[in-house]
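Notes from the pairing session

We agreed to fold both candidates in a single pass and log them together. This is the raw record for the first candidate, unedited. Please don't reformat it; downstream parsing expects exactly this layout.

Candidate A
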Amino acid sequence: MELDLRGISKKVGAQTWLYGLDLALRPGAVTILLGATRAGKTSLMRIMAGLETPTSGRIILDGQDITDLPAHQRPVNMMFQSYALFPHMTVTANVAFGLEQEGLARAEIDRRVGEMLDIVKLGDFGRRKPHQLSGGQRQRVALARALVKRPKLLLLDEPLGALDRKLREHTQFELINLQEQLGVTFVVVTHDQEEAMTLASRIGVMN
């Protein structure tokens, strides 16, 4: 998957968040967007996901202009910092939710959810609910839900921000191994320089 952002700008009222930004993403790599709060990192990520529209510029995915393509039609998924898990649903139901919305057959949903939970090492946790999991386990459920739809591009907004330092260090390497295993292109937003240097194959610094 090749994604090119060409001249992306974003204005909200009189305030400009992004100024004519160009960025080319390498297939199967981990690209980090590193910068302080209010540098425009999350705005750029939401534009990639189709959750916001750029004021100007184009988004080209594998040669196709997707600038005006709705979020649900893009081969892109986003994992939010809060994880946004459904508290009343089990782990299995959370991971299956997106596939059910697409109308896949039950057998196919069960197969893909089972495979993904095994990949993130939560195969025995399917019947638990989010409040019965640790912070690291909830993060892996959110990852599984984002990856089970087999996106070409996964966007992660401060994915380790809610974890304590020891768990963050452990999860960084889990994230790298998962990305290498699946070959999905990752874009990760962070303000943590050490985290960026550990995870990234490429770093874009936003000021």
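Candidate B (folded immediately after A)
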Amino acid sequence: MKRRQKSIYILVNAAKNSGRGILHGFLSAVGSRSDLNLHICEMSEYGKKALTEAILSNQVDGLVTSEIEDQTLSNILNTSNFPLVVIGTRKHCLPRKKHYLRIVTTNEVKLAATATQHLISCGHFASYGYVHFRENFCRYLSTQRERGFYDVLRRLHLDGISYTTDLPEEKSDAVELGSWLKSLPKPSAVLVGYDRRAADVLDACAQNNITVPDEIRVIGIDNDEMLCDFAQPFLTSISIGQVEQT
């Protein structure tokens, strides 16, 4: 008798290098198994809706996901009874799910601290800045990386300033970001929450005639080769390395 294929869903942000890494690693490990029916959902409103509908219809036998910030999805997963692997999110994101849960986290504070230490070692700077993510579902991740940035500055008795915006994600904040960058005493060292946002910083510098790296030294996080190699100028970034399993 032929066994029923198990429907395994993967929900990741494939626009990010780390999300593509999760997807590639999982597919490399299980992609050839004939007993699994894999479904890939993008971390978008459409993707989360498709996954939610599949869960409510009892069509999900297992899920690999990341960055659970959506409250509706979190509530559903809290009461789910299928195996769940969560990569790259905070430990208490699913406080009521007691079984079939495995969480793999990166020490985001330490990661950002390492990037900050490298940035500071590049020279003597008049100011230090941190630029947050734009995406709402990454707010926790961005805050953790900001914490690592300030941990290093405090140890060295340095001051820093952060940039964030209240503008909706779909609206450009290029003008506000450019004004903030211009206001920084030069030369300045800026850590950006992740590489896609670092590309915004480089664009804002170009639009405001701020030279990189002479006036502002920029470093990102994620080491997205596509973004780093084709950025103008080339973007320095730190890769997400060792993970802590919990």
